[in-house]
């Protein structure tokens, strides 16, 4: 899809959390569609170097920044690199975030656990989307990765669900706010995706079979299954779509 109808030649894209999983798949798919790609990661230097090399092998410009996006200084580092390498941004994908597999009941949740989730999943989105919007060309595209948990909740992960629900409200607000610049703002909400982040939970006895049984399409999604819809939303094909949540969950959660 990304190599055929979708043509992003000349576009400058930034993806957060792109050293692995959905972020990596998105960065590579954007590059194959013709975009130059810069990306942020947290600590995985070797993985980031590999992604840079893969983007360059696709014939596109690539750069990366290792930083903590949950604080303003980390986001500033990302956009300093953007200013040096790109000057502006056409596409911004806010993907970075955490999902600890351990269940934590609200009554047992510490202040530190709550604060860390807000910092990693919500503050990072605020700092980076603000930085991108300040540098975005008219007609740009912003996509934020949410979750089915942000729409239906998730027992034992209320702090995570709260961040993903907030992201959806953020998307809908910015869709209206940035529309005068012809910038679209959308969310993609994955369900269970077979990535390294989900691996510990899916490795529990019987868990994978249980998850698959609850997905009408009968399979757990891949990182590419999420990257494809993200790249679609970044293309001209989606120019009249804004403020929407595109669910990618195999039919397991039918949000209307």
Would you kindly provide a written description of the structure presented here, covering whatever features stand out?
α1 runs parallel beside α2 (45-57), α1 (21-32) crosses α9 (223-233) and α3 (72-85) packs parallel to α4 (111-135). The model has no long low-confidence stretch (mean pLDDT 94). The radius of gyration is 17 Å and the shape is globular. The chain has 9 helices and 7 strands. α1 (21-32) links the parallel β1 and β2 (36-41). Strands 3-2-1-4-5-6-7 form a 7-stranded parallel beta sheet, sandwiched between helices. By secondary structure, it is of the alpha/beta class. The two termini are 26 Å apart. The chain has helices spanning 21-32, 45-57, 72-85, 111-135, 149-152, 158-177, 199-202, 207-213, 223-233; strands at 12-16, 36-41, 62-66, 89-94, 136-145, 184-190, 245-248. The protein has a single domain, classed as NAD(P)-binding Rossmann-like Domain (Rossmann fold, 3-Layer(aba) Sandwich), CATH 3.40.50.
Could you give the order of the helices and strands?
A: EHEHEHEHEHHEHHHE
On the 0 to 100 scale, the average pLDDT is 94
Tell me about the largest β-sheet: 7 strands, parallel
Low-confidence stretches: none
- The CATH class label is Alpha Beta
* Gyration radius from CA atoms, angstroms: 17 Å
Distance between the termini: 26 Å
Tally of individual domains: 1
Class by SSE composition? alpha/beta
Molecular shape: globular
Trace the largest sheet across and list its strands: 3-2-1-4-5-6-7
CATH topology: Rossmann fold
What is the number of strand segments?
A: 7
Helix coverage percent of residues?
A: 40-55%
Task: Count up the helices.
Answer: 9
Our estimate of the beta-strand percent is: 15-25%
CATH architecture: 3-Layer(aba) Sandwich
What is the name of the CATH superfamily?
NAD(P)-binding Rossmann-like Domain
């Amino acid at each position: 899809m990304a190599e055929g109808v979708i043509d992003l030649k000349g576009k400058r894209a930034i993806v957060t959390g792109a050293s692995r999983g959905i972020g990596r798949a998105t960065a590579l798919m954007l590059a194959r569609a013709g975009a130059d790609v810069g990306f942020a990661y947290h600590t995985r230097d070797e993985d980031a170097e590999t992604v840079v090399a893969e983007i360059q092998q696709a014939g596109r410009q690539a750069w990366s920044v290792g930083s903590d996006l949950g604080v303003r200084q980390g986001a500033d580092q990302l956009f300093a690199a953007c200013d040096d390498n790109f000057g502006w941004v056409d596409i911004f994908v806010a993907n970075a975030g955490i999902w600890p597999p351990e269940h934590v009941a609200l009554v047992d949740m510490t202040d530190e656990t709550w604060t860390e989730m807000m910092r990693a999943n919500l503050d990072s989105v605020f700092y980076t989307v603000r930085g991108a919007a300040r540098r975005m060309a008219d007609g740009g595209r912003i996509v934020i990765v949410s979750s089915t948990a942000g729409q239906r909740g998730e027992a034992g992960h209320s702090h995570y669900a709260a961040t993903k629900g907030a992201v959806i409200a953020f998307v809908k607000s910015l869709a209206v706010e940035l529309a005068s610049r012809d910038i679209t703002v959308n969310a993609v909400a994955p369900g269970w995706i077979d990535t390294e982040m989900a691996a510990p939970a899916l490795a529990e006895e019987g868990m994978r079979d249980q998850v698959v049984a609850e997905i009408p399409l009968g399979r757990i999604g891949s990182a590419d299954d999420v990257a494809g819809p993200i790249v679609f939303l970044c293309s001209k094909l989606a120019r009249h779509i804004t403020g929407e949540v595109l669910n990618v969950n195999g039919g397991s959660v039918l949000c209307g």
